[in-house]
Every structure is written in C-alpha cells, then in structure tokens.
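Quiz preparation item.
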C-alpha cells in the first residue's frame, strides 16, 4: 500500500512519508485486521446441526436453486456452491443451508469433502472426543489448504479476496458418527464475517478490491467492513485500476507499479473528487495497493486507489461522509491548508509529487 498527502504546514506540497514507509505503515494496519479475521474463518464455516443439511445433486447438469434431494453432510461435490441465512443464534444459524447456482449469491464454494473416518488412529474413530476449536483450525491447515490448491489448480491468491474455509460437524453430529470435513472457498470480511460471493472462484480475478465508491468501516482506527459512506469509516475507494493496462506481461516490480500508480491514482482520484485541489483542501491521504509475485501468478491484476486520513500515531482517522462532498474527520470539518504566498511563480504540485525546490 502506498500513500501520499500534501503537507498543510508549508507552502510546498510534499510526501508526508516516503512511499515505502507509508505503504508499509498503512498495509500493516489493514493486514492486522485481516489476520484477526483469519483466526475465525474456519469457525465461521461450521455447522450447528449438520444432520439437517439439504443440497441437491449436480450429476445430471448445472445446479438449480432450492433443495432437490436430501443428502448427507459428506455428499457435496467439488464446485457446489452453498448459501444460507446467517443469524447470531447458533440454534438457527445455517438451518436453511442449500445448494445454489454459483452464478447466484452464495457464501461457500466446495473444494473437497474429506471423510476422516478412513484415516488411521483413534482420533476420528467411534466414540472419539469432539475436537476443539484449536484442533479444527489445525485440520483446516492440514487438509483444506491443499484441497483448495488442488481445486483451483495451484492458482489460489493467498493475498486475494477469498479465504480457505472449513465446514465441520456439530458436536451432536459428531456424537452420531459424522466425520466429514468440508473444505472450500469463502470470502471473509476484515472482521471475519462471511460475505456473499457471485460466480465461481475458477472464473474470477481474485484481487482483493472493492467497487469504486465503497467506504470501509473503522474499528479502533483499523479498517472494518463495508459501510454506508454517511457512517464512520476509514477510507473510500476512489478507483479500481487493472494493471494489465500498463503491464501486460510478467510481474512488474513494486517500484514500477508505484511509478505508474502514483500518477494514475492521482488522476483517478482528482476525477473522482471533481477537482485537483479537493484532496489537498480536505487534508486527505491518497494510497494504493500493489500486487506481489504470488498474487500475480494466481492471476490477480486489480488494485484500488483510495482516500482516507492517515494518523501520525498509525492507522486511520474516522471520516463521516463521502469524500466527493462535505466530510468530517474525527468529528470536525477539515481546514484547508493556506495557499502559497503571493508572488510565487512555482506551480502547486499534485499530491504525491516530489517537493518543489528552488536554487541557491
């Protein structure tokens, strides 16, 4: 992630941080939120009552919405997409789980079902104690990472929008002898909630981007989940850039990406905000993402240009309102920095430009 911001304390506009420092500083905030979410991903895919699951067979053709035939927990085929209505009550959550076409909204795409009862040892035998949360997390890492890689064809983006998920039996189902683990793909939010997906992962660019105009909520200065821009948020997506426009071949270096995106994002944000001075006048920070080699090899090509307000102490300030209109930053309207003194012939640089210097 890279960031630039005009300095409101001088008559010259310059970077508040070097590109590398700003990128890492903001990226660590976002990564911390994702890591916190990842700790609960496997739990969020569990079943409270797996014996009540109904899906329908795809043996005769593409899936159609609604249950067709009851099947056991371990009967879902690779490529099946599952949907349910989430609730906060474990007694009612996922009671309506059903198979849907992957073109429709869904929360889980099956990569592989694994029957643990055939594994040697007593851990999964009759009468074995129910695994705890830590053990289910270990089982996800041991089995589901490889299952998803095999399903996607070794083109899973570890930094992308999708996460590896595990559905596992409830304690009641385990007591009745259910030993199937269901590995698949889901889309966790920054806080760990499972978001709806549309389309199979096999047909998607996996880049972790949000549509232009999306505002990402905030929790203790850390990005949270998408919210209405009229509510408190950390930043707003101003543009989505496809890097193949500039780099149609091999993976470009981070420096090359930065060099391209600094001007491209500046132009895109100026257009989004409606003025070349809006970013400066609203004291906002422009930042963008870059794509590493592993994501590039998985086929990810899109990055976002976003605007927020970086805090000196790290993280984001709280913004209310879309950056395209009037906003509040930490509860106060932004104060535009002073204009350059009269008589200066130097042009006002765009956000992120190198500092203007004079000779002698």
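Solution:
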């Amino acid at each position: 992630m890279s960031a630039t911001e005009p300095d409101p304390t001088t008559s010259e506009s310059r970077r508040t941080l070097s590109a590398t420092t700003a990128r890492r500083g903001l990226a660590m905030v976002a990564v911390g939120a994702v890591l916190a979410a990842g700790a609960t991903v496997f739990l969020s895919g569990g079943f409270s009552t797996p014996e009540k699951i109904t899906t329908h067979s795809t043996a005769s053709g593409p899936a159609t919405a609604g249950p067709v035939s009851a099947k056991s927990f371990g009967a879902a085929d690779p490529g099946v997409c599952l949907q349910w209505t989430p609730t906060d009550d474990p007694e009612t959550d996922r009671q309506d789980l059903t198979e849907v076409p992957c073109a429709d909204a869904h929360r889980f795409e099956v990569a592989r079902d694994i029957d643990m009862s055939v594994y040697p040892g007593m851990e999964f035998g009759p009468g074995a104690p129910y695994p705890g949360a830590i053990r289910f997390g270990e089982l996800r890492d041991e089995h589901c990472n490889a299952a998803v890689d095999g399903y996607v064809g070794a083109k899973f983006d570890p930094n992308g929008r999708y996460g590896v998920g595990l559905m596992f039996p409830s304690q009641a189902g385990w007591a009745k002898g259910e030993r199937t683990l269901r590995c698949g793909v889901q889309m966790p939010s920054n806080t760990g909630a499972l978001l709806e997906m549309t389309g199979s992962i096999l047909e998607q660019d996996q880049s972790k981007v949000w549509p232009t105009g999306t505002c990402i909520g905030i929790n203790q200065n850390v990005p949270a989940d998408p919210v209405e821009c009229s509510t408190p948020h950390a930043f707003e997506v101003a543009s989505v850039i496809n890097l193949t426009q500039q780099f149609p071949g091999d993976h470009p270096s981070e420096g090359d990406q930065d060099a391209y995106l600094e001007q491209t994002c500046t132009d895109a944000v100026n257009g989004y905000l409606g003025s070349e001075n809006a970013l400066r006048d609203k004291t906002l920070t422009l930042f963008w993402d870059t794509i590493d080699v592993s994501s590039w090899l998985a086929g990810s090509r899109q990055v976002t240009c976003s605007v927020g307000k970086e805090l000196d102490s790290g993280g984001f300030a709280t913004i209310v309102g879309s950056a395209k209109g009037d906003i509040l930053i930490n509860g106060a309207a932004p104060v535009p920095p002073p204009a350059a003194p009269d008589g200066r012939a130097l042009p006002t640089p765009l956000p992120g430009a190198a500092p203007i210097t004079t000779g002698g």
